[in-house]
Amino acid sequence: MKVIANHVGRVVILKPIDEITPSGGIAPDDMRSLIVERYGFTYVTSGSTPLEQIQKDGFKFQMGKVQSSNRMFVIEELSIFNDGIVVAGKTTDAAEAFIADLTQWAKDSHGFRIDETFWKKKLFLSEMTVQFDRQISEVIASFHQISKVVGDLYGGTYGLSSPFNVSTLVLDYDRASVPPLAGTISAFKIDRRIAEPFADNRFFCTAALRTKDHVTALEAFEQLIPR
């Protein structure tokens, strides 16, 4: 398996913002300027944006960067909501590096009340395109028999002769049996890339995992596919 591209690595921290802001408060315009100066964001939500829109979409900073452990990470978006923050980069490593830098700086330099509870509720999303070396259809023991039955029926109905293959694989849990917060977690999905030949064996993959764990899961999945 080869990772063709990392598309999104998103980290959500669920923590009411009014529980971490300085006791004496801080002017939103001042904080916005400080964040832009430190991270070089090229777009920021306008101060004239209606409050209702900010509450719905978040207060956004886009296209910045952060230095961490001798690496430079591009941060595609920071969104601040009343109940937490959302940070997106190409990988969750980038997003977590940014959050670590942001929170330490905000605490040390501006009196934000950041403690261990800040990290208690954390959600992840990883999206990437991969190319498998094996055919994922082989995970279904009776796939060839099933595809022949369906293919023959489609052929008889529409005159199609192109063979069927697996396009989407989704692993999920019983969302009716889990707490509401868990119900917001993305399923593990493998979707064949649209408009690309089946022979290319490329898939758009989604998981509510750190990027590195997402890769580990996909590699383990492919190793279990019969050759």
Proportion of β residues? 25-35%
Trace the largest sheet across and list its strands.
2-3-4-5-1-6-9-8-7
Structural class designation? alpha+beta
Average of per-residue pLDDT values? 94
Question: What is the count of β-strands?
Answer: 9
Strand-and-helix sequence, N→C?
A: EHEHEEEHEHEEEH
How many discrete structural domains?
Answer: 2
Helix content: 25-40%
Cα end-to-end separation: 13 Å
Shape call: elongated
Low-confidence stretches: none
Cα Rg: 22 Å
What count of helical segments does DSSP give? 5
Largest sheet: 9 strands, antiparallel
Task: Walk me through the structure.
- Helices cover 30% and strands 30% of the residues.
- It has 227 residues and is of the alpha+beta class.
- It has 2 domains: 11-125; 127-223, no CATH class.
- It has a 9-stranded antiparallel β-sheet with strand order 2-3-4-5-1-6-9-8-7.
- A hairpin with a 2-residue loop joins β4 and β5.
- The longest helix has 19 residues, at 92-110.
- The protein is elongated, with a radius of gyration of 22 Å.
- The chain starts with a strand and ends with a helix.
